[in-house]
Amino acid sequence: MSLSTFPEGFLWGAATASYQIEGAANEDGRGSSVWDTFSHTPGKVAHGETGDVACDHYHRYAEDVALMSEIGLPNYRFSISWTRLFPQGQGARNQKGFDFYNRLIDELLRQGIEPCVTLFHWDYPQALEDLGGWTNPDARKWFGDYAEACFEAFGDRCKRWITLNEPWCHAYLGNATGVHAPGNKDLATCWKVGHGLLLGHGEAVRRFRALGQSGEIGLTTNHQWGIPLTDSEIDRKATDQYNAFSAGWFLDPVYHGDYPEYLKRTFDMPSFTAEESALVQEKTDFMGLNFYEGSFIQWSDTAFVNASTYKDPTMETTQMGWLSLPETLKQTLVLSQKVYTPPKIYITENGAAYDDVLENGRVHDQKRMSFLRDYIRAAREAISLGVNLRGYFVWSLLDNFEWAEGYRPTFGIVHVDYATQARTPKDSAWMMGEVARANGLDYAGATKV
Ligand code: BGC
Questions:
Q1: What is the predicted pLDDT for the residue at 445?
Q2: How many angstroms does the Cα of residue 29 sit away from the middle of ligand 1?
Q3: 402 in ligand 1 pocket by Cβ < 6 Å?
Q4: The domain spanning residue 36 has which CATH number?
Q5: End-to-end CA distance of the chain, in Å?
Q6: Residue at 290 is within a domain
Q7: DSSP single-letter state for residue 305
Q8: Which residues pair with 116 in a beta bridge?
Q9: Distance 20 CA to ligand 1 centre (A)
Q10: N or C: more exposed end of the chain, with fewer CB within 10 A?
Q11: How far apart are CA 161 and CA 208, in angstroms?
């Protein structure tokens, strides 16, 4: 196997999330989520944009699946909108919601594309939020019931499941800084929400096993092992604290049954009962990693967890202002494997937003292409160092609703013209198809680029 070829059976695919692409927010009985409420609250999302229409994927899913097939991506990670299935989050089912995901899954399989399903990608039912959301003692059961309904309805055809997407973001950005839905600004709530998410994750894994589902299930986090800016003791200490907050908050409980000592010592963390600790440690089949931004970490007396990220002003950033540091992906993969020993790891998201230009029906997104090549190379190096990495999903299939940033940042490998909903694959899409066909970077050259 050459250094740019990946192990046999490696999964190549693209990822999306329900609220970011589906639209049809008020159609066919879908209930409101916290993101509907948040995006309709003035001042919360750039330019007052919402996911009401987004990429209209709810109506155009067949066209989108056909595009994936044309590009040549054999795996597709998408999330289910909880409130399409259960408008109130619990209780009455909405059959039209189940019908939509059945149509989507059947179409994927018809085109030879394997589904990978995320149960929760931040669009939490507003009706449950009104009851205290993830901090309610019943939250675990609500999520378990919803997960079980999904396993029963779709588990005959979907074999790869992700319980939660990036609980760190939902808990911290949604409840401490308030820049995401539901927009709370209270640290104590943030830790409680994190706790509720962890219990929900464990409950979903337990239900999956109890139903005797075939296939695999895991959690996706956006953790990162930062690199100390200097070798000084203080920067290394900042980095340790940063890592405990980034990786340890969710992964220590899932793999070791409790929060990191640093977090317990410093913050008012909820504690796990013995039963809860066993629940969150329900064995998962893979670790999902979403990776975007590499960081150099330095000590800061004022910053949260005493760590601030250093941005070298001479280095180019992406549209999000993020630094591209592929070596941090390699380091994060290597340390994730070493510290938590997951049976395997999937990169469930990686990608970049750039200012794309659509000209004569083409988008020559050279920067995205080189970003993706650099990260795929770093991922391959991690495999050489002993990491059992088994899949890579690019974020995102389509340009879409980028949460509080609205529609400006474009992460897609497919360009979307929101006025007409026309889709145009960018050069990076054809490149990803070649990567998938060659199972690595050893492709002869991009056919359509
Ligand atoms: C999320 C996506 C988001 C992407 C880019 C991840 O945090 O899972 O929903 O669009 O990063 O910011």
A1: 54
A2: 26
A3: yes
A4: 3.20.20.80
A5: 26
A6: yes
A7: G
A8: 77
A9: 9
A10: N
A11: 9
